[in-house]
Predict the 3D structure of the following.
Amino acid sequence: MEAVAKLRNVPTSPQKMRIVADMIRGQKVSKALGILKFESKVGAKAIEKTLLSAVSNWQNKYDNAKLEEADLYIKTIFVDGGSSLKRLRPAPQGRGHRILKRSNHITLVVAPSAAPSIEESSSAE
């Protein structure tokens, strides 16, 4: 019982986005939203948007379950590098230095904390 949300081609470097992702990994959804709302780092808004989308996806997938009883938490979150825009910047003596404008992809998975795991159900048999 998990739901996935992906946000692609976010125009921020993956290194900056991973700092924010590390702060909320494994947290409850309500606590993570509180952290992201007041975080001043660049990637906080994008990850907050992705987290709200994942919660909405979970509600659409399991419409008979109640959100309050599910007690959702962030199961996994990872940030991959996206495409890079290559630009040239003027440098001394007629040279040009390459500037890379990086982007990233965010993948976020939420799951209820009360759901039984696969190991528990197989060991009971």
Summary: The longest helix spans residues 44-61. The radius of gyration is 19 Å. The domain at 3-123 is CATH 3.90.470.10 (Ribosomal Protein L22; Chain A).
